[in-house]
Write a structure and sequence with these properties.
Number of strands: 8
Bound molecules: ligand PTJ
Structural class: alpha/beta
Number of domains: 2
Strand order of the largest sheet: 3-2-1-6-7-8
Distance between the termini: 38 Å
Strand content: 5-15%
Helix content: 40-55%
Number of helices: 10
Shape: globular
Largest sheet: 6 strands, parallel
Order of helices and strands: HHHEHEHEEEEHEHEHHH
CATH superfamily of the largest domain: Phosphopantoate/pantothenate synthetase
CATH architecture of the largest domain: 3-Layer(aba) Sandwich
Length: 257
């Protein structure tokens, strides 16, 4: 009988070893109460799009990562963390927040105080000092938003100009924009509502994006305010999404010939 794969018995030579390790990690994170069952489904959806990208970061997305990193360095920003982003990248989130002087706030769609506390512990284990979004005393609502994502921290997202919302479902970006926030996202699906509504959409896998943003933050740390502004100025998200859609379509056509 076939033994089920765990992170301890994935053969190194398996062609999809890395992807299987990430799956095993997410399965553990589900058992440990970090990610919800819906998060596992979201991951599967992401994997399908990542297949089309060939599981590498396209040049087009590298450019968007550059712009997004400049925007974080330039602004009063927050990284919004959910179950999936914590399970995949807790350590990188803390590193990026430190390098870009961004706050960290937990915001869950499938609300659970227990899960939020576990995510906070995980982030703190990786060095996060302040984690916002937990203390009900400081919570306020995004005007008009009905879903559980409506709760934001008065000291975090409410106060900040730029909100980084990696790997998220659709409705919040639209309402953050109504609050005049600049929204950055990472989503493997270029057709999602979050992708379409954000100011800067990085179409790539979060596990590749965050290390690249960390690298670029270090490279850009000496740039002046006006240099950073120049990087952001000419960026056009709609054009960038069109380019990535064309890139994905071409990949599929090339693979079929
Ligand atoms: O922890 P919670 O309760 O806040 O819930 C988090 C999830 C992700 C379950 C919730 O936000 C959700 O249901 O999201 P969706 O609607 O499934 O959207 C998630 C998006 O992320 C989809 O467009 C996926 O393609 C994309 N995605 C999944 N994995 C990755 C990804 N994008 C980048 N990197 C990934 N690793």
């Amino acid at each position: 009988m076939l033994k089920s794969l765990t992170r301890h018995n994935i053969p190194k030579e398996h062609p999809r070893a890395n992807s299987l390790k990430i799956r095993a990690n997410l399965s553990d994170s589900f058992d440990n109460g970090i990610i919800s069952q819906f998060g596992l489904i979201a991951h599967g959806r992401g994997e399908a799009f990542d297949y089309i990208l060939g599981e590498t970061t396209p040049k087009i997305s590298l450019k968007t990562i550059h712009v997004a990193t400049a925007q974080l360095l330039l602004s009063n920003s927050v990284i919004s963390v959910n179950g999936n982003s914590a399970a995949l990248c807790a350590k990188s989130i803390v590193q990026l927040a430190n390098l870009t002087n961004s706050k960290i706030e937990i915001n869950l769609f499938h609300k659970s105080k227990t899960r939020a506390n576990k995510i906070s512990q995980l982030l703190k284990k990786h060095g996060a000092k302040d984690v916002y979004g937990l203390n009900t005393k400081y919570l306020t609502k995004i005007p008009g938003l009905k879903s559980n994502r409506k709760y934001i921290d008065k000291r975090g997202i409410f106060l900040s100009d730029v909100i980084f919302v990696p790997l998220e479902d659709g409705d919040r970006t639209e309402f953050l924009k109504k609050m005049n926030k600049t929204v950055i996202t990472v989503d493997l699906n270029p057709l999602s509502r979050t992708s379409a509504m954000s100011d800067i959409t990085i179409v790539d896998n979060l596990v590749r994006v965050l290390p690249e943003m960390i690298k670029q933050s270090r490279n850009m740390s000496n740039l002046s305010k006006s240099d950073l502004q120049k990087i952001i100025k000419k960026f056009n998200n709609k054009k960038q999404l069109n380019l990535i859609l064309k890139y994905m379509s071409k990949r599929l056509i090339d693979l079929s010939t």
